[in-house]
Amino acid sequence: MSAYHFLAGCYDRFTYDVDYASWADYIQRHFARCSLPGNTVLDLACGTGSLTRELALRGYELIGVDRSPEMLAEAAEKNREGAPIEPIFLCQSMEKLDLYGTIDACVCCLDSVNYVTNPKRLARAFERVHLFLMPGGLFLFDINSPEKLEGLHSQIFLDETEDAYCVWRAEFSRRSRVCSYFMDIFQLDRESGQWSRGEELHQERAYTVEELTTMLEKAGFLDIRTFGELKMRPPRAGEQRIFFTARKDKLIHGQRNR
């Protein structure tokens, strides 16, 4: 089983309830708070490009990066028309991020950070983001909290549309701190009337705020803050999703502005 080879074609149907416009609104509030040095934004782990499109339609110059060619194919098709500047898409893993130039902000949303289950690889990914950010640039991402992932253990979920069906179960290992999602996916071919079946394994690691803060600091980030789910306040006890923002040091006349 491998992630997204089968799921890419029906991902948007299973995530129809995600309000990407609200996510883009929230991101823009942080952009305004931090006064970005420009408007070039990296959507890291962009998936099928729904959030990429929302931000591009608002006038930002987008670069979408994802390691799944199948998800990127969906993203490229979705973002062909409409935005003032058509996004660029690159097939890369986070820890090997390699851009053609600098960016003013990086967003990595919908718990994509949790999907990097190797802490050393995640630390390298943070370093790569920091490398390509302009001075004063912003890094924004969210995670599923450890409490949420642990609470998913032994639960079974069902997603269903007219032509797609997914049943998945979650198993959380306290030893590895990894939550594994075992998925059975069925899709209907409307032309033939036949159903096809695929199996995929998705995994998320539970990271604490302290672990991620340390990684960000070692990568060179400053002004590291945490927020509640789509909130501008600090996270509360039991928060299911936690947002992080971090800044790259800003240089003024050769001096560091902290």
Question: How is this structure best described in words?
Answer:
The chain is of the alpha/beta class and 258 residues long. It folds into 2 domains: 15-144 and 208-257, Vaccinia Virus protein VP39 (Rossmann fold); 148-205, N-terminal domain of TfIIb. It is 26% helix and 35% strand. The chain has 7 helices and 13 strands. The protein has helices spanning 11-14, 20-34, 50-57, 69-78, 119-132, 146-151, 209-219, and strands at residues 40-44, 61-66, 88-91, 103-108, 133-144, 156-160, 164-173, 178-189, 194-205, 222-227, 241-247, 250-252, 255-257. Strands 3-2-1-4-5-11-10 form a 7-stranded mixed β-sheet, sandwiched between helices. A 4-stranded antiparallel β-sheet has the order 6-7-8-9. Helix 5 (119-132) crosses helix 7 (209-219). The radius of gyration is 19 Å and the shape is globular.
Helical content, roughly?
25-40%
User: What is the chain-wise order of helices and strands?
Assistant: HHEHEHEEHEHEEEEHEEEE
Number of domains: 2
Q: What's the CATH C level of the largest domain?
A: Alpha Beta
For the biggest β-sheet, the strand order reads 3-2-1-4-5-11-10
Just name the CATH architecture of the largest domain: 3-Layer(aba) Sandwich
For this structure, the CATH topology of the largest domain is: Rossmann fold
Number of strands: 13
Secondary-structure content class:
alpha/beta
The residue ranges in which pLDDT falls below 50 over 5 or more consecutive positions are 252-258
Please work out how many helical segments DSSP would assign.
7
